[in-house]
TrEMBL record:
Residues 410-500 form the Mg chelatase-related protein C-terminal domain. The gene is comM. It comes from the Bacteria. SUPFAM superfamilies: P-loop containing nucleoside triphosphate hydrolases, Ribosomal protein S5 domain 2-like. This is Putative Mg chelatase-like protein. It comes from Campylobacter geochelonis. InterPro entries: CHLI-like (IPR045006), Mg_chelat-rel (IPR004482), Mg_chelat-rel_C (IPR025158), Mg_chelatse_chII-like_cat_dom (IPR000523), P-loop_NTPase (IPR027417), Ribosomal_Su5_D2-typ_SF (IPR020568), Ribsml_uS5_D2-typ_fold_subgr (IPR014721).
Length: 504
């Protein structure tokens, strides 16, 4: 028996071992292991491809097993591995390769629509993998770090690859994506910094408190909500926040591209973190993922590692807003359907913007608010207290004044983010401050005596929940990091509390 590696998508990417055996019995060819129609059709494609090379099938029964056998499998990219196991049954070859290609009837090796997605997810699952792929995708695949990629254009070349070492050396594809040539090392790990500030905070006049809040949110990946009159800069702040978020590791870049590829996009690698901004009329399935039969990825999962922005926050449906509580709290979302159950990571920074009232003039010094208290309460009632409790930072934004000036640019803010990011990683944190949980909060968020007194007073005065206490501590930890303080001091706690949402 011989075997090769392949992979398939079910609820997540699964590595599949393709095994073959030639047995005594009536000549035949069968594929077992819960293969769907696409793989069953491989029998005809593989036979035609082998016959085009004048291959003589032995008078034996050929059985191909896709292991694990209880896992449903699909995809025409199994063709090449099946054909190689039949053609090379009498030869010794390296079985550690991952082999992917669809075969034409003339033996041509072709890529498939899902192949790049599979390779991206495989790069997060298996390190230093040796991969054999068609030439039309080889250069793109070679840009994935930690892959040793070999390219062939036909079944004939693939067979020769495994029996001719000199030819195999010529199939190696060396390519590095420009993005991964400019990495920085932090805490023994490579990260990809962003030097693109297409949208710059220097465009925003005034709003110093909002900019300070954005800097704190970016440093720790804290959820943030902006409230203010129309035109005061809420959306401008939200859209520029993406450009100062912490750098991604190489694996995070791969995962972001992999998730984006599931959205049927021709993806490329980017130093910029993901940014998703669904409209308030979007359906629940489009935001959280789903479908009638298979669990498709939604905006919440596509924002993983980046920013999810809800503009006009109260106008989103009540069911959508309440459904946000799970991904915000657990940093993951489970989509269950009859045929599949899929879990996606949702470690994003959540950003929301809303007006103070339906007409938007409640905070205005120049315009008159025409809303009654009943209308204001109804407008804000869509946002429940448990949902607000999951927001780290709240900012009430001022109206723009004529003498407002720009004092901060994104480049300077990003330098501060890099400094704080380095501090957190060198402290041994696997997650940034905003995503700390349980015992990590107690270990990392160390308070001075005065800071403890202030926090205890705030717990009594504002009736903070345990979640609210943890949020306050995590924001204070980021503020302390910005001040280069090893311990959380009184001033840091006070500033953190000033950003808490006040329930009426």
């Amino acid at each position: 028996m011989k075997s090769l590696n392949c992979a398939t998508f079910t609820d997540v990417l699964r590595v599949v071992r393709v095994e073959s055996i030639f047995m005594r019995g009536l000549p035949g060819f069968s594929i077992v292991g819960l293969a769907n129609t696409t793989i069953k059709e491989s029998e005809s494609r593989v036979k035609a491809a082998l016959l085009s090379l004048n291959f003589s099938f032995p008078p034996q029964k050929i059985v191909i097993n896709l292991s694990p056998s209880d896992l449903p499998k699909s995809g025409s990219h199994f063709d090449l591995s099946i054909a190689l196991l039949i053609a090379l049954q009498k030869h010794e070859f390296d079985e550690s390769f991952y082999v992917f290609a669809e075969l034409g009837l003339n033996g041509e090796a072709k890529s498939t629509n899902s192949l790049f997605s599979i390779l991206l997810f495989l790069s997060n699952k298996v390190k230093k993998a040796k991969v054999l792929v068609p030439k039309d995708i080889a250069l793109k695949a070679a840009m994935i770090p930690n892959f040793e990629v070999y390219a062939i254009s036909s079944l004939d070349e693939a067979i020769r690859f495994f029996i001719d070492e000199e030819f195999a050396k010529t199939c190696l594809v060396n390519a590095t994506h420009p993005l991964f040539e400019k990495t920085i090392e932090i805490g023994g790990k490579n990260y990809v910094p962003n030097f693109n500030f297409e949208l710059d905070f220097s465009d925003i006049k005034g709003q110093e408190r909002a900019k300070r809040a954005c800097l704190i949110a970016a440093c720790g990946m804290h959820n943030i909500i902006f409230e203010g009159s129309p035109g005061c800069g809420k959306s401008m702040c939200a859209k520029r926040l993406r450009y100062i978020l912490p750098p991604q590791s190489e694996s995070e870049v791969m995962l972001a591209a992999a998730y984006e590829s599931l959205n049927n996009k021709n993806v490329d690698f980017s130093a910029l973190r993901a940014f998703r901004s669904p409209h308030h009329t979007s359906t629940r399935s489009s935001i959280f993922g789903g479908g009638s039969h298979t669990a498709r990825i939604g905006e919440v999962a596509l924002a993983n590692g980046g920013e999810l922005f809800f503009d006009e926050f109260p106008h989103f449906g009540k069911q959508i807003l309440e459904s946000l509580r799970e991904p915000l709290e657990d940093n993951k979302i489970l989509i269950s359907r009859v045929n599949s159950k899929t879990e996606y990571e949702t470690k994003f920074i959540f950003v929301a913007a809303l007006n103070p009232c339906p007409c938007g003039n409640l905070f205005s010094k120049n315009g008159n608010c025409i809303c009654s208290q009943v209308q204001i309460n109804r407008y804000k009632s869509a946002i429940s207290l448990p949902l607000l409790d999951r927001i780290d930072i709240y900012v009430a934004m001022d109206e723009v004044r004529q003498d407002d000036k720009s004092t901060l640019c994104s480049k300077d803010m990003y330098n501060d983010v890099l400094r704080v990011f380095t501090t957190q990683k060198e402290r041994g944190q696997s997650e940034l401050n905003g995503k700390l949980e349980g015992s990590e909060i107690e270990r990392i968020c160390v308070l001075s005596v005065q800071a403890k007194d202030v926090l205890n007073q705030a717990i009594s005065r504002f009736n903070l929940s345990q979640r609210g206490i943890n949020k306050t501590l995590k924001v204070a930890r980021t503020i302390a990091d910005l001040a280069n303080s090893e311990m959380i001091e009184k001033a840091h706690i006070l500033e953190s509390l000033s950003f808490r949402v006040r329930s009426e």
